[in-house]
């Protein structure tokens, strides 16, 4: 997300003048070691749990509730159909960063199970 600096400011030792353009990386959100004890660790119980995935303030996504519902139902169906899976313990995640930071692949191992009759 690009923004323009409104007033001169120094952030992290970098001086920015009014009118300068800055690029805010959502991929960096939640990874500040000054704010999080272990920013590289996925901790679903972390408190506080700030999340900028849907923006914030006046720029908050209007579809956030629907997106969260679709995600929850999607995971429920996935886990119902593939309840037993593992990730290779030697797997090292690789990430790509654009407008968001995301894992480029996640190889799962699972045992095939018979498809339940009448399920779509």
Provide a descriptive summary of the structure in words:
This protein is an alpha+beta fold and 120 residues long. It has a domain of 75 residues. Helices cover 15% and strands 20% of the residues. It is built from one helix and eight strands. The strands form four sheets. Strands 1-4 form a two-stranded antiparallel sheet. Strands 2-3 form a two-stranded antiparallel ribbon. The protein has a two-stranded antiparallel ribbon with strand order 5-8. A hairpin with a 2-residue loop joins strand 2 and strand 3. The longest helix is centred in the middle third of the chain and has 18 residues. The two termini are 39 Å apart.
Order of helix and strand elements from N to C terminus: EEEEHEEEE
- Uncertain residue segments: none
SS content category = alpha+beta
- In percent terms, what proportion of residues is strand? 15-25%
Any key phrases for this structure?
single chain, 120 residues, alpha+beta, two-stranded antiparallel sheet, 8 strands, 20% strand, elongated
Question: What does the secondary structure layout of this molecule look like, with pairings?
Answer:
Layout (H helix, E strand, L loop, with lengths): L1 E3 L4 E3 L2 E3 L4 E3 L40 H18 L3 E3 L7 E3 L3 E3 L4 E3 L10
Antiparallel strand pairs: 1-4, 2-3, 5-8, 6-7
Q: What would you say about this model in short?
A:
By secondary structure, this protein is an alpha+beta fold. Helix content is 15%, strand content 20%.
């Amino acid at each position: 997300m690009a923004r323009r600096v409104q007033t001169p400011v120094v952030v992290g030792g970098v001086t920015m003048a009014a009118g300068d353009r800055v690029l805010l990386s959502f991929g960096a959100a939640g990874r500040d070691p000054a704010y999080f004890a272990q920013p590289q660790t996925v901790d679903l119980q972390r408190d506080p749990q700030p999340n900028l995935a849907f923006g914030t303030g006046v720029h908050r996504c209007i579809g956030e509730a629907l997106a969260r519902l679709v995600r929850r139902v999607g995971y429920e169906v996935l886990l119902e159909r593939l309840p037993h899976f593992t990730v290779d313990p030697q797997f090292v995640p690789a990430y790509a960063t654009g407008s968001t930071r995301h894992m480029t692949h996640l190889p799962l191992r699972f045992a095939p199970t018979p498809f339940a009759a009448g399920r779509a």
